[in-house]
From TrEMBL:
InterPro entries: Calcineurin_B_homologous, EF-hand-dom_pair, EF_Hand_1_Ca_BS, EF_hand_dom. Residues 26-61, 110-145 form the EF-hand domain. PANTHER family: EG:114D9.1 PROTEIN-RELATED. Pfam families: EF-hand_6 (PF13405). Belongs to the calcineurin regulatory subunit family. CHP subfamily. One of its GO terms (molecular function) is calcium ion binding. GO terms for cellular component: cytoplasm; nucleus; plasma membrane. One of its GO terms (biological process) is protein transport. This is Calcineurin-like EF-hand protein 1. PROSITE patterns: EF_HAND_1 (PS00018), EF_HAND_2 (PS50222). Keywords: Calcium, Cell membrane, Cytoplasm, Lipoprotein, Membrane, Metal-binding, Myristate, Nucleus, Phosphoprotein, Protein transport, Repeat, Transport. It comes from the Eukaryota. Its main location: membrane.
Length: 154
């Protein structure tokens, strides 16, 4: 699988992704391998269903919202570059110090971009506001998850 991933991803694509996301060459290659293993349709894109097969997302109370973050509005597939752009929000901020050669624009994993990303997880109707109902939905999901965990532990 690893050799398949490295042969399908061209060096110039890796360099472009490195510049945009701050991921290293080896991280990109490893994530491409994971991407292709999730791509059950073998068409170079992932669907929501592909993401739902990831156990960590399936059990996360905010899993649906995290999955939706990978898909631009109106889209039902994400390609590798879009996948990497979204994952870049999860990189530690300290990594920016190691990647001083990135473009002058603010890194995807900057504090500001992380806050915007987190905000969008709560703003379900994408009206640039978090309504009381949207916040309650999140709190209820987390509360249900906590109650289930407590029952499991006892």
């Amino acid at each position: 699988m690893g050799s398949r991933a490295s042969t399908l991803l061209r060096e110039e694509e890796i360099e472009e992704i490195k510049k945009e996301t701050g991921f290293s060459h080896s991280q990109i290659t490893r994530l491409y391998s994971r991407f292709t293993s999730l791509d059950k349709g073998e068409n170079g894109t992932l669907s929501r269903e592909d993401f739902q097969r990831i156990p960590e997302l399936a059990i996360n109370p905010l899993g649906d919202r995290i999955i939706n973050a990978f898909f631009p509005e109106g889209e039902d597939q994400v390609n590798f570059k879009g996948f990497m752009r979204t994952l870049a929000h999860f990189r530690p901020i300290e990594d920016n110090e190691k990647n001083k050669n990135l473009p002058a624009s603010e890194p995807l994993n900057s504090r500001t971009n992380k806050l915007l990303f987190a905000f969008r997880l709560y703003d379900l109707d994408r009206d640039n506001k978090i309504s009381r109902d949207e916040l309650l939905q999140v709190l209820e999901k987390v509360d249900v998850e906590q109650k289930m965990s407590i029952r499991f532990l006892h």
